[in-house]
Structures are given as structure tokens and as C-alpha cells.
Design a protein that fits this description.
Number of helices: 5
Mean pLDDT: 79
Oligomer: single chain
Structural class: alpha+beta
Largest sheet: 5 strands, mixed
Helix content: 40-55%
Shape: globular
Radius of gyration: 13 Å
Order of helices and strands: EEHHHHEEHE
């Protein structure tokens, strides 16, 4: 399973250059502690956290829950998310890509990283 990571640096679309950081259970996800990540992330409306929640659900084989989290992220407030390779990606685009990955024979998870 391939993984692409997103840093928890968020820029609201059209906002000044100052960025906020968000705890997105990156460490738990990197250590394979998906259930712990799910506990940390459930009950959120934040796009970055929802994307990681979807990735954690998918890693646990909970595809319907993953789909619901990604769908919610696709309509959440729009942010630019910085990927680990330095790219900035619109959170709604990232959520839709994650949704599409659920329909492929392999899973390309997307998750955010806290600094």
C-alpha cells in the first residue's frame, strides 16, 4: 500500500501566509497504531483530521467509514495542505483523490503530519 503524507500546516484559501498547525495523529499512524489514531480523530470537522481519519479507517479495513470521512472532508472548509514532499494540495482535491483510491485495487492513503 503506497502512502503520501500531508503536513499539518494549513492555509485557509485566501488567508495570509501565517499557517496554523493541527494535531492529526501522525505519530500514531506512522507507528501503525490505527485504532489509537481513530480515537484521536473521531468527532472532527477539520479537513486534515478527516483525511487522516479516513486513512486510519482504510488501514483497518473499514472502507465504508473511510469513505464517509473522505466525503465529509471533500465538503469541509477548504485548506491548502502541505505534503511531506513539499507540495501544497487543496484539501478538497486531496479528499476526492483519497475517495477515488478506495475504488482502486490498491490503497493510496493520505494523511497529515504534526510537527
Amino acid at each position: 500500500m503506497a502512502a503520501t503524507f500531508v503536513l499539518a500546516t494549513l492555509l485557509a484559501a485566501g488567508a495570509p501566509a501565517a499557517a496554523d498547525t493541527v494535531d492529526v495523529a501522525y505519530d500514531a499512524m506512522m507507528q501503525g497504531q490505527h485504532e489509537a489514531a481513530i480515537e484521536q480523530l473521531e468527532g472532527t470537522d477539520d479537513a486534515a483530521r478527516l483525511i487522516n481519519l479516513g486513512a486510519a479507517y482504510a488501514a483497518e479495513g473499514r472502507v465504508l467509514d473511510a469513505r464517509a470521512a473522505y466525503e465529509k472532508a471533500a465538503f469541509a472548509e477548504r485548506y491548502e495542505l502541505e505534503t511531506a514532499d513539499g507540495q501544497w494540495v487543496d484539501s478538497r482535491v486531496l479528499a476526492r483523490q483519497a475517495l477515488a483510491s478506495l475504488d482502486r485495487p490498491y490503497m493510496d492513503t493520505r494523511m497529515a503530519k504534526a510537527d
